[in-house]
Amino acid sequence: xxxxxxxxxxxxxxxxxxxxxxxxxxxxxxxxxxxxxxxxxxxxxxxxxxxxxxxxxxxxxxxxxxxxxxxxxxxxxxxxxxxxxxxxxxxxxxxxxxxxxxxxxxxxxxxxxxxxxxxxxxxxxxxxxxxxxxxxxxxxxxxxxxxxxxxxxxxxxxxxxxxxxxxxxxxxxxxxxxxxxxxxxxxxxxxxxxxxxxxxxxxxxxxxxxxxxxxxxxxxxxxxxxxxxxxxxxxxxxxxxxxxxxxxxxxxxxxxxxxx
Length: 260
Hints:
Blueprint: H1 4-17, E1 33-34, E2 53-55, E3 58-64, E4 70-76, E5 90-95, E6 104-113, E7 116-125, E8 131-132, E9 143-152, E10 155-162, E11 167-174, E12 181-187, E13 190-191, E14 194-195, E15 203-211, E16 223-228, E17 231-236, E18 246-250
Parallel strand pairs: 2-16
Antiparallel strand pairs: 1-13, 3-12, 3-16, 4-9, 4-15, 5-6, 5-12, 6-7, 7-8, 9-10, 10-11, 13-14, 15-18, 16-17, 17-18
């Protein structure tokens, strides 16, 4: 069994990489954050929605088909509200995971735990947990851009930029997936092996995005809502007028789409 002091030191190092210097005890050590494929959910009774799917951990937009080999996206890092219990939210782009167990992705974290908000950037290829990008300090309101594409064969490039601060990160990794979906997602990540309560992120904007080098041509039926505790907790807008972006809102009310 790992001694408490060793565990605390490891957690302190991890939080330091997020720019957090909170003093820790064994009782308030932060858990490992990971992201999972979409988990389907049933919609609660209520007004009809134009969105095409519901999930307990995903909300946003996803395209399904075959041979998705590149995706780009831009989003604004949302600011999370204080919560009595720990809450978590992730904004990311990725390929696969909608109908299968594979997923390559990169994004940002906006969480509230140990009495304060925490923000950071990461990349991940399942089944591994997220890899925090320690060279990038992310703040709410920062504009992020990201690109994931196949270089050749099973070699893939993952790039994420904080255009507000000028920080950039890129890495090449091996990935073997079905390539059957491409998505722009607001997620309740998994903590301790379970889907975490979604943080109140207010509103987030994903705009613009491309898939396989082209406008994704989003329609409302490509969108999905998040259901937790029999309540709708995250809702996308309709696509914007040029069909390459949308807004997200915490709660059950759909926001207006962004202006294009």
